[in-house]
Amino acid sequence: MGLFILRRLFYFIPMLFVFSVLAFAVMQLQPGDFLSKHALTMSADTLAQLRQRYGLDQAPWVQYWKWVSAILTRGDFGTSFETQQPVFAHLFVNGNRLGWTLLLTGISLGFSWALALPLGIYLATTTYAGRKSPFSSASSKASGSRLKYALHALGTGTRWATVRLINALSTASLALPNFLTALLILWLLVAVFQVGARYGLGISGLFDAKYVNAPWSLGRLLNFLWHLWPVVLVVSLSNMAQLIRYMRAHLLDVLGEPYVQTARAKGLEERAVVYKHAVRNALNPLVSLLGLWIPLLFEGMLVAAFVLQLPVVERAYWRALATEDQYVVLAGLLFFALVLLVGNLLSDVLLALVNPRIRYE
Amino acid sequence: MRRYFSLLLGLLVVVAWTLPLQAQDATLIPNPKVLTQDQFPDGLGTPGGSVTIDNVDNPRTFNPIIQFESSSDAVNRHLHAALLELGSQDPNALAEAFEVSSDNLSVRLILREGLKFSDGEPLTADDVLFTFNDVVFNPDVVSRKTQWLINGQFPTVVAEDPLTVTFTTAVPFPPILTNLALQEILPKHKLAQFVHKLNPDVPAGTFNEAWNIGTPVEEIVGAGPFRLASFVADQQAVLERNPFYWKVDPEGTRLPYLDQIILPVVSDDNVRLLRFVNEETDIYGPSPEDLPVLQQRTQQGIRVLVAPQAGTRGDNFFTFNQDAADPDLRQLFHDVRFRQAMSHALDRQTIIDIFQNGLAEPRFGPGMSAAFFFGVQDDLNFPRFDTDLDKAASLLDDLDLPDSDGDGTREFGASYPNPGKPVAFELIVPEGSRVPISEADFWAQDLATIGVEVNLNPISFNTLVGRVSGSRPPDFEAVRISIGGGGDPNLAADVYASQGPLHLYKFSDAEGTDVPDYQREVDDLFARQAVSTDANERFQIVAQLQTVLAENLPLIWISNGQGLLAFREDRLGNFVGISLDATIVNSELVFRRDLAQ
Questions:
Q1: Is any Cβ of chain A less than 8 angstroms from the Cβ of B250?
Q2: Residue B320 has pLDDT above 50, yes or no
Q3: Do A213 and B274 touch (CB under 8 A)?
């Protein structure tokens, strides 16, 4: 396994190289000289120096080489023309952007999986009309008791309502664009619940103003949690709907397999059949999806960051796109490429952990 | 008269009584600026508390010389002070007195004794000389120096002693007092190291990178009411009171009243409105369409100020780049008939009614604030090229722009370099604010009906500024933008004079070749008004200037919006004015009402 991970890490090098060439080519396709857009705030000398430093007056491959060699030899990702800061500091270090991105994305990832998997399992194992539920061993009608029948009807009705509710919510979350969900949450908090007027609570950002510069304390932690939940909801909601559907579909597939029948036939409890035999196998395709999932979360964070005003890498990247801050955009693209690669590696490793048949030796 | 006399006497007694008190405050200078009672509309305040105002973006720089956008200004405006100040009866600021020589060629200013920057270092004539001779007039530094150019020359600035500075010009230059009020004095002890001519170790132009947003906050000092306490990117900037500030209220209380100004970074219009309604922020610059929401909430202590209380905004306009790279468009944009047609196709009143809730005046010529400045009604009889689509279409017909293929869009005729090419241009608009985009879209639809295709492109404001003025020739075809008004009409030379740094409609005029006749007349009028010492004569020249511009439409003026500002009246006292970007102007006077109770 260790060797496998090492080998995969080694593959990152050519992959990142290809990514960097692609990213650079895309930037070159943009019309105009990006430095001229900043001429208003820089003197002619500064501009000339920057042009020379990045070889902007030279052929694209020379520019590319200067950029890449500066990264490899000095860890220098260039300068943000907007803020006159080194790109690495601007995009990742200032305001602890990378730290917040990883923390928020991690929490959202955990939340979406922790909620989506049980819901998917519930949807797959729950039937509410006509068909036999895997959890009820006998049909109530057969028992003939009116009370039992009524209870069963009530149970079926509740299940029917729950299933419909989950379906409706997941469809809605899939259909609603992230930014609208974010705005809706903020609007509900302000206009309906009046959290500011009633409880003095703020909206958007990660903290109320008084806690931004304060040292960590219980109050700050609680305030952070208050600001955290809309972020987690917005980032995970749309992806979660998909995850629920995947989980349900795969589990239904697996539940129809002969070995599940065998497990039931040998008298295993239904719970054990589902969780020990069926779910573990249904998870395999989902785990391999994780590689794609992580970039999706970063994409969700991009929108959340913009509406919810989060101090994350995505927001700085977004602004760099809008202001055509070339070296920041390039560093951002490389970062997202790395996220994709790490996500894939992670999903391969996890796959081996959950599936004993997979070994990378 | 007797009453005034006794009042004055009473005031003197109060001042005399507070003097020993002030002496105890070791950091207060011997002769602070004592504000008069009438400058406090809600009475004197109680020190303490804070005000929270959302800033539209991270500041780009803490360097006030190179700032060109409101997100930096929202922070920097509170950190610095100038020699003189506008808008109060006593124009003295860092200078305790000034005199203009009888020949109108020089201004001599005496600085207050014992002035200190916010880090406690003394502020002397040396800092004034540094600010002007080494920074503002320095060719290496990107600054608003054109307003200081008089026939191509800067004033000479010399110091007689550490407290006396004299500005001398070759010809009388009335705008100099306004200019002095707009130029913050910078600390030489912090910034000299970044100026190549004082520190040859650094390359020329280093100053433009000084005081960037990564600079430690202790390095950023000024003589304004507040100083920078902290800045966290994407979260907030916090300003704290400057303990060395040089103004006191009539009772001798050191200003500012507020302990802090908190400026969270919130870059979305909707979220800023929600946060204001949620009582998180105290001040909000609404769009006209937010008014119904806010006016419902007046009982919650929200008050909306509308011009003229809130001051007037500058001009909003469309303009064409007469140096555009496309030869056909360039030829077209040069023709005044085309610009007249564009003005005829613009339904200003409907735009104001729909998108600005009627809260604006249609504009047919430049504002320039001349009326405000000279104290007369600004009802100049500009030539008006008002809404008339038929007129617009017939003007376009005259310009050899037939719709030869009958697809509804005109093509360039044989008199253009590329006959047969559709008449289309890209219109860039600042994204993020709704009104400009709606206006541009509305105009584009009307233009489509007369066969002109507009490609509307909303881009970030900073990118837009870069494309419009970042290179020569600039990289745009048409733009919708606003330029703030206020102050001396001479400031409008930035835009309309050939040499102006914001002469965005035809930067090539600066080269002096191919300058249209009307532009030569404009330049001549600007030069004349700048040296005219007779206010009436100057007003006449400015009026003529405005008429020439209105006839030739280098800009397609849209409207002069009224300033709008919402604030929490239950919390803030002495809150009187705003600027274009809806932030506090008189931050040293504002106090928290809830603390006083």
A1: no
A2: yes
A3: no
Find chain B residues with C-beta within 8 A of A197's C-beta: 278-279, 300
Average pLDDT over chain B, rounded to an integer:
85
- pLDDT tens, residue by residue, A7-36: 888 889 999 999 999 999 988 876 556 665
Whether chain B has a CB inside 8 Å of the CB on A95: the answer is: yes
Instruction: Determine contact: B467 vs chain A, CB below 8 A.
Output: yes
A126 and B CB contact within 8 Å:
no
Contacts of B36 (CB under 8 A, 6+ apart): B89, B90, B250
Strands (E) located in A173-247: none
Top pLDDT among B71 and B478 is at B478
Residues B281-305, buried b or exposed e (16+ Cβ, 10 A)? bbbbbbbbbbbebbeeeeeebbbbb
Q: Which residues pair with B422 in a beta bridge?
A: B411
Q: Which residues from chain A sit within 8 angstroms of residue B280, using beta carbons?
A: 196, 202-203, 208-209
Is residue B316 predicted with pLDDT exceeding 90? Answer: no
Higher per-residue pLDDT: B269 or A22: A22
Environment class of residue B162 by beta-carbon count within 10 Å: exposed (0-12), middle (13-18) or buried (19+)?
middle
Report CA B168 to chain centroid distance, whole Å: 26
Residue B366 has pLDDT above 50, yes or no: yes
Tokens encoding B166: 């004299």
Q: Is the pLDDT of residue B16 over 60?
A: no
Interface touch B463/A37, C-beta < 8 Å: yes
Burial (CB count <10 Å: 0-12, 13-18, 19+), residue B20: exposed
Report chain A residues whose CB lies below 8 A from the CB of B142. 40-43
- CA atoms A238, A241, A244, A247: torsion sign: negative
CA–CA separation, A334 and A336 (whole Å)? 5
How far off is chain B from A210, nearest CA to CA, in Å?
Answer: 9
Strands (E), B128-178: 156-161, 164-168
Identify any residues that bridge with B454 across adjacent strands, giving them in sequence order. B425
- Which pLDDT score, from 0 to 100, does residue A140 have? 46
Higher confidence at residue A53 or residue A346? A346
Residue A112 has which token pair?
């979406």
Is the Cβ–Cβ distance between B142 and B208 less than 8 Å? yes
Contact check, Cβ <8 Å, A213/B268: no
Q: Looking at the complex, report in whole angstroms how far the Cα of residue B136 sits from the nearest Cα belonging to chain A.
A: 13
B200 touches chain A (CB under 8 A): no
Q: What is the CA radius of gyration of chain A?
A: 26
Q: How far apart are CA B101 and CA B91, in angstroms?
A: 17
Chain B residues with beta carbon closer than 8 angstroms to that of A178 = none
CA distance B458 to B439: 12
Q: Inter-chain contact B462–A94, Cβ cutoff 8 Å?
A: no
Q: Distance of CA A26 to CAs A46, A319, B462, Å?
A: 26, 18, 22
Angle between helices A2-29 and A60-74 (to 10 degrees): 140
Nearest Cα neighbor of B482 from B567, B560, B575 is B560
Residues 172-231 of A with CB under 8 A from B: 183, 186-187, 189-191, 194-197, 200, 202-209, 212-213
For range B149-159, the mean pLDDT:
88
Q: Does B202 touch chain A (CB under 8 A)?
A: no
